[in-house]
Amino acid sequence: AAAAAAPAAAAADLVGDAGAAASADVVLVGFATGSMELVAHYLRLQAALDVGSLLDYDVMPSDLVDETRTGLQNLGNTCYANAVLFAISKICSCRYWFANHQAHGASCGIECILCALAGDIAALATLPNNEPFQPASVLRRRHWDEAGRFDNFVQHDANEGLTALLTACNAVDWRAFKSLEVARGFSPDSAVAHTTPYWKIFGALTRQISRCANCPKVVDKCEMRTSFSVAVPLAGPVAIEQLLCDALGKEALSDVCQGCGARDSRTMETVMERPPQVLVLHLKRWDFDVVRQ
Q1: Taking residues 66-93, what's their average pLDDT?
Q2: Which of 147, 207, 250, 251 is the most buried (most CB within 10 A)?
Q3: Is the pTM of this model over 0.70?
């Protein structure tokens, strides 16, 4: 515990008093002292502002209905997107996020992807019949990312679709926050930026600590993540918990140490310092049979 607290204390000393520490996420990226390099440790400090609260997302709707009786039409290889919508519709915190946006997002434009997704999720949970409908958020999938990777009729990875869709929705909230007077000076990488509903629900704080076997160089990097990829073995019984632990453990790095120049001498240990409300796991299977496809 003492070892874990030391970098945080060093970061707090660097930025000074509590008031300075609260706003340090605006400018502080990392610093090095001796053989220790700290990167993005401002993410461990309390954010100066809470985006969710400022956008009135703290209200917990009491009248949410969950009587899913309908399906979604496949628009042409969009089964990955439909699966994502069904999964999201069963996450209560997402339902609160979307319901609040519907209540306060009257000024959004007609192409608002968050409004479209909120309407789809509400329809999935409340339509009294089982007639499948075309999900508006999937019809507007060209807005899922700037590159338009999903604006086609080819198959896509469901985890990539989930991340792209929710990241686009998060961008709607971030733009709404940046329109406020108090939002000046805060960047998309700041601690404040990670207080939106999206980051509160899915965000996990991880630390990647790398060490060199030939010199005392240590790099301690903090990072916010919304999903974790785990490798599924080709055979044998599998425990999800063990797969996640394996993904977060220690691994050898194939690179050059910036401290001494040694090659392939570093190891990195990844730990989850602050878990998310909802843990997203991307299961990767590496086996492919040409005959079985």
Answers
A1: 90
A2: 207
A3: yes
